[in-house]
Design a protein that fits this description.
Elements (H helix, E strand, L loop, with lengths): L2 E8 L2 H15 L7 E8 L2 H4 L5 H4 L7 H8 L5 E5 L11 E5 L8 E4 L14 E3 L3 H10 L4 E3 L5 H9 L5 E5 H6 L6 E3 L13 E6 L8 H8 L4 H17 L7 E7 L5 E9 L6 E9 L3 H16 L1
Parallel strand pairs: 1-2, 1-3, 6-7, 6-8
Antiparallel strand pairs: 3-10, 4-10, 5-8, 5-9, 11-12, 12-13
Helix pairs in contact: 9-10
Amino acid sequence: MSVVFRFATRKSALALAQSGWVLEQYRAQPASRGLSLSLLHVVTEGDRVQDRPLYEVGGKGLFVKEIERALLDGDAELAVHSMKDLPAGLAEGLEVLAVPVRESPWDLLVTRDGRALSELADGALVGTTSLRRQIQLREARPDLRFVPLRGNIDTRLRRLEAGDFDAIVLAEAGVRRLGLKLNGRSLEGAVVPAIGQGALAIEGQSASIDRGTPRVAELARSIDDASARLETELERSVQRALGADCVTPVGALARVSADGLRVEAQGFLATPDGARSARATVSGPVSDAVALGQALAEELRLRLQ
């Protein structure tokens, strides 16, 4: 009889596409032999509350606390998250066991006719709840107007098509994972992405091996990508060093060089009202990734003063 491994995941179309992709990667690994992999659907507080910005109702942790409870209660062995949904600190006893190959980290400007940011009409209405996106877009186009927009990708696209907005902003990774063909333009160069954007996190119990279940960790780590893990560890070190929370407009993106020896990171930080903002970059050997993240955070803090 095969051993059942359950992966906790949210129920949105994007979450299911991501977790389905993760299961395909695991099923191709030797470590999955003799295992039956299945999904455990979890409805989170972030899924239930759709009428207010996240920073008003508790922040990123709203998408993970019920999933982490499933892990701690033994209802699931592993969990699949969008890395950018993870708060700086995980529930006690849990850790990120693997970071698979990363998708595009960039934000995408989506319109009905494929216009670029510079081509939007004066005073165009842009749908996005993210302060990070709003502030950076306003730096490039001070005339733009912003309206909060939450909900799944299909909900956001329907509202765009209905004419509620001239443009909306989506994470390009989500668009790609859903296989959507949109009139979108990458905001690379204009908007520093959210910390961990484009990456997935496989979370599990830190004590799996001590409790006599080494196959949990063995399976989880079998699809770990060294570059994606290092990049996101650097980015999350920025988050921790800044003490950033759900109301902090912050972004960071690290990229490992092709030879795997060096890493470069860019960062963005603003005051919540957008009155002041700062950008900075750092680079160095991959062995110094966490220290580089801390240095980037300090440079951003100094430039914002």
